Amino acid sequence: MKQRYIDRDVLTHFVREKKIYEDKEYHNVVFVGCDENGTARHAHKRGTYSNAAGYRGNVEGSDPKYSFNYIGTSSILYVFEAPIDMLSFITLHKNGWQQHSYVALDGVAEHAMLHVLSKNMYLKNVVLCLDHDPAGIEASGRLADILHEKGYASVSCLQPACKDWNEDLKAQHGITPIPAKQHPKLEACKELCGEIRYLCSHIKSVKNPHVMLMERYEKAVPLMQSSRSTDRQKAVLMEQLLSMAVYALFAVMAQYRQLEKPVNFKQLTDELCHSYHPHQDRGKMKTKAEDIQRDVDAINDQLNTSGIRILEDKQKLIASYMSLALNCVKAQIFVCLEEQEQKIKALQKQNEGRDDYMQAVCEGFMQPGI
């Protein structure tokens, strides 16, 4: 544990509480989770050998609801993927740490977090402190959704600067840490929303954005339905989807003008970007096309409804246009990342071919008489 740089006082506290000990056989560190009566119900083992791959696992029979945790008196619960992350965070934020509550999930499942919350009703503010990598980012979004569904209004995410909280702690001690890894879908979303903002700000006006939107949609439909697209077709599809998102935002602006609410394109594209969550972005292009069609149908149904539109109708129409813009962004992200993946696979195949060639050459040189 010395190489983890966990604060001695923090470690001593949990050792005295019999929540951390070292097993005799393999010298693994064992993190114990207890029930409300103090009975051990969960044990997570973590290897201590620095030259090993890093053994970790739960003892057979452990109840996932009772993972390693600490319950304080404040309304804040900090949630982590692993006990080491939890102890590292406490070390980094040692001042008054015992006021707050902490739980390690031993992964990214929600069971332990929900159990702690159910047994300590005063915990109202949940801070998700998962790893700063694609898996941690998606898990944070999923857990936040679960908490909101359970009625928790105060849910926030706190990311380490490096890959996890122990890497942050190592960095403080001069050890080169494992860096954080951004989510490729989020990075693509930011770039695409930037392009949408640029186009919106440089197009002076659009007389009938819905008509323009539908024209682009008609061109995009066969391209989205194509099972095998050429690079040129993908480029055209990206152009149509980008234009659809732009015209959708122009339609939103038109509705806001009718409501006499001042909104600019930066606000709309920021909202668009913030509404994107990678854990909710699933499925291939067929799914994206279905989502886009559903939005288009909903918009057309609302526009074709006779009568005067009241405030609620306009707000619903705005939401539909924003949903369409977001789904166009999701489809673009899919195309972008699929293309990147294909390039990586092609490069790997090329490298494998080169390796096979070099191996054959080497074997030829090693043959007698050469």
Percent strand: 5-15%
Total domain units: 2
At CATH's second level, what is the architecture of the largest domain? 3-Layer(aba) Sandwich
| Number of helical regions | 11
Helix content: 40-55%
CATH class type of the largest domain: Alpha Beta
Task: Report Rg.
Answer: 27 Å
How would you write the strand order of the largest sheet? 5-7-6-8-9
| Count of β-strands | 9
What's a concise summary of this model?
This protein is an alpha/beta fold and 370 residues long.
Structure overview:
- This protein is of the alpha/beta class and 370 residues long.
- The chain has two domains: 2-172, 3-Layer(aba) Sandwich (Dna Topoisomerase Vi A Subunit, Chain: A, domain 2); 184-350, no CATH class.
- It contains eleven helices and nine strands.
- It has helices spanning 8-16, 83-92, 111-119, 134-149, 165-172, 184-202, 209-225, 231-258, 265-274, 285-304, 311-366, and strands spanning 20-22, 29-34, 40-46, 56-58, 69-70, 76-80, 101-104, 125-128, 154-157.
- The chain has a five-stranded mixed sheet. It has a four-stranded antiparallel sheet with strand order 1-2-3-4.
- The protein is globular and about 75 Å long.
- The N and C termini lie far apart (55 Å).
Strand and helix layout:
Blueprint: H1 8-16, E1 20-22, E2 29-34, E3 40-46, E4 56-58, E5 69-70, E6 76-80, H2 83-92, E7 101-104, H3 111-119, E8 125-128, H4 134-149, E9 154-157, H5 165-172, H6 184-202, H7 209-225, H8 231-258, H9 265-274, H10 285-304, H11 311-366
Parallel strand pairs: 6-7, 6-8, 8-9
Antiparallel strand pairs: 1-2, 2-3, 3-4, 5-7
Helix pairs in contact: 2-5, 6-8, 6-9, 6-11, 7-8, 7-10, 8-11, 10-11
